[in-house]
Amino acid sequence: MGTPPRILIAKPGLDGHDRGAKVVARALRDAGMEVIYTGLRQTPEMIVEAALQEDVDAVGLSILSGAHMTLVPRVLDGLREAGLSRVKVYVGGIVPEEDAQALRDAGVVEVFGPGASTRVIASTIQQQLTGA
Amino acid sequence: MGLVQDALAGDRRALARVISLVENGGPEGRAALAALHPHTGRAHVVGVTGGPGTGKSTLVNALAGVVRQRGITVGVLAVDPSSPFSGGALLGDRVRMRDLAGDAGVFIRSMATRGSLGGLAQATSDAVKVLDAAGFGLILVETVGAGQSELAIAGAAHTVVVVEAPGLGDEVQALKAGLLEIADILVVNKADLPGAAQAARALGMAADRGGAAGEAGKGGWRTPVLLTAALDGAGVPEVADAVVAHGEHLRARGMWAAHERERARAEFVDHLQRESFARLMAKVGQERVEGWVTRSATREVDAHTAARTVLSLGLACGEADVEREHSSSEGSDYF
Ligand SMILES: Nc1nc2c(ncn2[C@@H]2O[C@H](COP(=O)(O)OP(=O)(O)OP(=O)(O)O)[C@@H](O)[C@H]2O)c(=O)[nH]1
Ligand SMILES: [Mg+2]
Q: Are residues B242 and B152 part of one domain?
């Protein structure tokens, strides 16, 4: 058993509640990951900086505000510029399918809709980060 | 060791990677520590501990802000427990440290305890060394003051700040947890809430009762009790002043150097114990060790005698190994 995968969970944008993000954060912890939780109203710059300092394997973005098409690409670009293109990016929230496809094309590994169960989210990410 | 050189040169991504290597504790991490070692010993390491929810992270955020205004760079290490069930951890201290974002003079790292009791203090102090070598002037280590290992981490700092808050039950938490003894600075946070002044008085009295003996152990340092409202920053400059004053006190008394030497000794002994134990086990072999365990369990021989016998066998085995290298004829069964 190697070291636990590390994942940053952040809520970019201005929407004001993070219950969903916290539930997912706990599920990821219970799946054996080290979850760095950064809370509400994170700018893409803050997220990239935290991902760098925490040396995470992945970043999970919870976005309910509908601003995913502006926020997510900025995080992806920021990670690339910081030399962190190996960091996997996941998005959770209310994302229409054509947007989800565009985000995947831009480099997001998975987009989880509101219907996705936390158990599925946790096991999917766990599997992709550990290859197990 | 390109990564270490890059980290020393101020590359923050390299710094983050090196902390991971060191935290993971493998040969790469040990090599990195060896390369970093000559560059360590400059930072003032401050433990910030206390009960859950007392406002440690909020205070770290505010304190780092004050110290940054004074032109000193700050490294933060926020340690939280791993889940004993899943091995995962929820590290949420950054939530309270958002004011520090975007400042290149600050580096924040969250760290999980990853279970092992003795290993925790070692991993933390190793991560501190990386930040120290990278040139951060002040290193704040936040731990929840709940157990022995957390006490050990805090105790490894030059200066220990114990954070308390009112309204957590009438009994002051620090008293129960045995934190009072290790405190160099006592902070009653949430001074904006009722009961803070009372808590400060209770702590002040308890600290005075510890009195002469405590002060003597600290070279005449009188532990101050300070009130803060970390959320709005009230009282935080005074905490920064007290930290500086304590550092000066340690240096003036020659206690800083003594502390460094004690740390060096503790680490040396710790490594020596672990390394020699591991080698002994490898020499003697699992099977024989289990054999002696069985003999002890069946009352054939007591545990102490068994251990001493195995040690003697291991040491003799070591010499015989050397002989064997010369003659390369004997079998390996020395028992
Ligand atoms: N009223 C008041 N609340 C505060 C103050 N400082 C912190 N808090 C609040 O206390 C709660 C806990 O603060 P943290 O800084 O996370 O406390 P902590 O000790 O780091 O908590 P853990 O790391 O979870 O043990 C938060 O809701 C803070 O907003 C203060 O000075 N006054
Ligand atoms: Mg905290």
A: yes
